[in-house]
Amino acid sequence: MIEHEQISSGSSVLDLRVARSETRPLANHVLILVHGLPRAMGMGRQAAGLLPELAEHLSNESGWLVATGTLSGVGSSTGTFSASQWRDDLKAIVDRVAEGEPRISLAGFGFGGSLALNVAAHDARIRGVATFASPADLEFWCGNAHDFHHAVQVAGVVGDPEELLGPEALHADVMTVDPVDSIKKIPPRRLLIGHGSDDMEVPVADARLLVAGAEGRCELRIIQGAGHQLRADPRMVATLLGWLDRHR
Q1: What CA–CA distances, in Å, run from 11 to 8, 14, 68, 164, 183?
Q2: Domain range summary for the chain, segments of one domain joined by +
Q3: DSSP letter at 149?
Q4: Angle in degrees, 0-180, between the axes of helices 167-175 and 83-97, rounded to the nearest 10
Q5: Does residue 19 contact residue 66 with C-beta atoms inside 8 Å?
Q6: Rounded to the nearest 5 degrees, what angle is found at the Cα of 69, between the Cα atoms of 196 and 116?
Q7: What is the pLDDT of residues 157-202, one digit of tens each?
Q8: CA distance 66 to 133
């Protein structure tokens, strides 16, 4: 069963979907799925498209309550992308699901994983983080500030062009996420780093940078032959379900 609601994050209104197992309910465990930031034409609006289905599957298989929100500028959520705004969005989602003081974990894809590390580094309520195909070197991932700014516009995650930061400011804002510094602050809480061996968008070396940042205090899973899009890869799903099962 999946429920839909809307929550506020500053001036943005976010779509939030929460899947709840009716057959294997596991009290007090919540997983939040965090989508990434595609930069292909129009794909930003579809960034979270598969996550509600994945949330329902994970919930039914694990018994966890699984939430997924569309961040500012994505899907039917209002607002405009910036790293700071997305950070605030994820914090708002955590605040919403934190009622009743559950054990909260985050699982992020692409830049969503980098963002999840950054939010978890400063929020003790988050007991674990899993990342999949997530960049550690954001300078390399962003590339040229003007190219990145154009890619954000092309992706379609800009609700109001006047709200979009300028190229240099947008780039500098993304750099504040700093996944390698963030992951240092998370152990002894649980960490899972997943990556495709053939990822052409985020090199598999980034996964090893994250492991090094955590001083090896994490699980590393390299999915052989997999590319960047791991959300629908059954091996990723099995890896995440196994992590959830060990996380009780």
Answers
A1: 7, 10, 19, 14, 29
A2: 2-246
A3: H
A4: 40
A5: yes
A6: 50
A7: 998 899 999 999 999 999 999 999 999 999 999 999 999 999 899 9
A8: 20
CB 208 within 8 Å of CB 183: no
Indicate whether 38 pLDDT > 90: no
Instruction: Give the model's pLDDT for residue 234.
Output: 86
Residues 6+ apart with CB under 8 A from 214: 183, 184, 186, 187, 191, 193
CA 144 to chain CA mean position, Å: 23
Q: pTM to 2 decimals?
A: 0.95
Find out whether 82 and 74 touch, Cβ atoms under 8 Å: no
Q: Write the single-letter amino acid at 246.
A: R
Cα atoms found within 13 Å of the Cα of residue 132, Cβ hemisphere only: 24
**CATH code 3.40.50.1820 for 2-246:** yes
The answer to whether residues 51 and 15 touch, using CB atoms and an 8 Å cutoff, is no
Mean predicted lDDT score pLDDT of the chain: 91
